[in-house]
Structure formats: C-alpha cells, structure tokens
Specification:
By secondary structure, the chain is of the alpha+beta class. The protein has a single domain, classed as Immunoglobulin-like, CATH 2.60.40. The protein has one helix at residues 2-24; strands at 34-35, 44-47, 51-55, 67-71, 81-86, 93-99, 103-107, 118-124. An eight-stranded antiparallel β-sheet has the order 1-4-7-6-5-8-3-2, with no helix packed on it. The longest helix has 23 residues, at 2-24. The protein is elongated, with a radius of gyration of 19 Å.
Length: 126
C-alpha cells in the first residue's frame, strides 16, 4: 500500500514539473499575438503565440498580395519555425511565412489571401 502512495506521489510530482516547464519554456505563451495594421480593418485572432487562426479584415491589399503581421506576446530566444495555411476557398493552400524572435508575417505573395480569409498558423520554438 505504501509503495502505491509513493508511486502516485512521484507521478504527480513529475506531471507538475513537466507542466511548469512547459509554461516557462521560452516562447511559450497562452496569450494571442497582437495583429498588425496590415491584417486589415476588423481582423480578429484566436489562439496563442504557438498556434491559432486569423480572420483577415478589409483592406489587406490586392488579391494575391495580402499579408498580416503578428507580434508575439512573449518574444522567443530564436526565431520559431512557422507554417501558415489559407483555409478559405474550396481547397486549403499553404502561404508564405517569415518569422523573427518577435513577429511572424503571413504573406500571400504568390498565393491568394484576401479580405475575410481565415489563415491558420503554427509556430514551434527550439
């Protein structure tokens, strides 16, 4: 019986330490990034620095040249590896993404992102 209590305590301690490390990991944040003016008027975001979805507002630029800059709520020590996907339209399409330690730019140059599109992003720090 005592062995089971010690085992449970060890497992709970490990889970607590892993959870605390995940929250304190550089670049880990539960807060959503800030949307730049280039995301368009009325743009919205759901998610965190690590992943989320942006609904572009109006005035993001001509079709095929839209872009949206997200400023991370917590800067990371190195630029995260990011990817983006335009989920609007009949078929989802990958979009260009460029990241720094403080921002990620979702870029529609060469693909099409425009007013009202929903763009998902995923950024992983290392």
């Amino acid at each position: 019986m005592r062995r089971n209590v010690l085992r449970r305590r060890a497992v709970l301690t490990a889970v607590l330490l892993i959870g605390a490390a995940a929250l304190l990991w550089p670049g880990a944040s539960l807060a959503a990034p800030t949307l730049g003016a280039d995301c368009g008027s009325g743009a919205s975001i759901v998610g965190s620095d690590s992943a989320g979805k942006v609904t572009l507002g109006t005035g993001t630029g001509p079709i095929g040249y839209g872009r949206c800059t997200l400023t991370f709520s917590v800067p990371s020590t190195s630029a995260p590896a990011c990817q983006g996907m335009n989920e609007s339209g009949r078929y989802p399409a990958p979009i260009g993404v460029k990241s720094t330690t403080t921002t990620v730019v979702l870029d529609g140059t060469g693909t099409t992102i425009s007013d009202g599109d929903v763009v998902s992003y995923l950024c992983v720090t290392y």
